[in-house]
Specification:
With 109 residues, this protein is of the alpha+beta class. The protein contains two helices and six strands, in the order αββββββα.
Length: 109
């Protein structure tokens, strides 16, 4: 990605520390917001979920899903799910920071 985009995003995220939610009733999940340059603009890649998944059938979404036992962190969850859903390898992703925890209407965090 153009270093100016990534530098700006990294700086903004570093100036706003992540707010965490502690709620054991929510299912831990991780998503990846994929930002890339195209024709001089900053774009976001979205995913259309299939009708065969357990949750959020047919929805437009960021790649992501529930944390698996082998995932050490929610970042690991997001990277694994991004590879499974979009074919993008973790080694090809430059992580710029984290966003706040956000509960969904379907009880994921």
């Amino acid at each position: 990605m153009n270093s100016s985009y990534s530098d700006v995003i990294r700086r903004i995220l570093s100036q706003n520390p992540k707010r965490s939610i502690i709620d054991p009733s929510l299912v831990p999940a991780g998503i990846m917001i994929l930002v890339y340059p195209k024709d001089g603009e900053c774009c976001i890649l979205l995913n259309k979920r299939t009708e065969t998944v357990e949750h959020h059938k047919g929805e437009i979404s960021f790649p992501g899903g529930s944390r698996d036992e082998e995932d050490d962190t929610l970042l690991a969850t997001a990277l694994r799910e991004t590879e499974e859903e979009m074919g993008i390898l973790a080694r090809d992703v430059e992580v710029l920071g984290e966003l706040d925890d956000m509960p969904t209407s379907t009880r994921f965090l």
